[in-house]
Write a structure and sequence with these properties.
The chain has helices at 6-11, 13-19, 42-46, 64-78, 83-89, 112-118, 122-134, 139-152, 156-167, 175-180, 191-194, and strands at residues 2-3, 33-37, 51-53, 56-60. It has 196 residues and is of the alpha+beta class.
């Protein structure tokens, strides 16, 4: 792998612009290109993101990361110390941890309707709208929505007040308020678990 000279860039400028997505709209002279044997950049060749000539590909600077990753991956895979970590990597959840109560009390009941329209995930927005329209949610919906409210920072007192006000408008038994308000010691389910 070596950097393409300014003379070679000038001679191939039209082909470099046409072949790289990142090159569109930018001057070739301002970008750094690298010349790499094509077998080291098969992913970029497959996606047609590079210019191929005489067994070499011309890669813009921002796409060089994929080459470095491809070169270092066999070394990482062969290291025995990393095998346990790598074997569990595909099953790891990398999203936000909602089990930590760091935002308790950050929202109020008055904010729920406006937040549901602009900030709630679609599944929770649907549960909120259904609850407001029908004053009823089935058990699974109450559990998911109650834990979601707990996760976004609604305090227990606010949650109890919210569920009571909704359930008294409908035909729901008040014993269900304790379960829905989050008196159970648990954390909100991850969306990948809800959506299965």
């Amino acid at each position: 792998m070596f950097q393409v000279s300014p003379e070679e860039k000038k001679a191939l400028s039209e082909k470099l612009i046409n072949s790289s997505y990142s090159g569109s709209g930018c001057k070739v002279e301002e970008q750094v290109f690298y010349k790499v044997p094509f077998q080291d950049a098969l992913d970029l060749v497959r996606m047609r993101k590079v210019y191929l000539k005489a067994g070499y590909v011309y890669i813009p600077n921002q796409d060089i990361v994929s080459i470095l990753t491809a070169r270092s991956l066999p070394t990482v895979l062969s290291d025995e110390r990393l095998q346990p970590l790598l074997s569990h990597l595909s099953h790891a959840y990398v999203g936000q941890d909602y089990s930590i109560q760091k935002s308790v009390g950050k929202i109020s009941l008055e904010q729920l309707d406006s937040l549901s329209e602009k900030s709630f995930p679609p599944c929770m927005r649907q549960l909120h709208q259904s609850l407001r329209e029908n004053h009823h949610l089935r058990h699974g919906g109450r559990m998911q929505y109650g834990l979601f409210l707990k996760g976004i920072g609604l305090t227990l007192d606010q949650a109890l007040q919210f569920w009571r006000s909704e359930f008294t408008k409908g035909k729901v038994d008040m014993d269900k308020v304790a379960v829905a308000s989050g008196r159970l010691v648990s954390s909100p389910p991850l969306f990948e678990v809800i959506n299965g």
